[in-house]
User: What shape does this take?
Amino acid sequence: MAKKTEGFTKKTEGFTEEAEGFTEESGAFTKEAEGFESKLESAKKVLETLMNPEITLQDSLRAYEKGMSELSQAQKILEEAQIKITEIKEK
Assistant: This one.
């Protein structure tokens, strides 16, 4: 949910920068970072499971599928962050 903050004025050696009605995504980057970290941590746990020499073939296939899904979701979060960074740089 976007949060509207009051306009602000920043003065530096005669330079004035105003951003009235600045919109800030409250916690969006934090949530994405947590989601990304969570997905990577989950994938690491899956890798540990797959390294167990006593795991069955069926369990290893399930674990592999889950790990690939977690990595795919982490990649999507990373790509979305890269797009946002590019958009910010172009402004």
About this structure: The helical segments are 28-50, 57-90. Residues 1-24 have pLDDT under 50 and may be disordered. DSSP finds two helices and four strands in the chain. The radius of gyration is 21 Å.
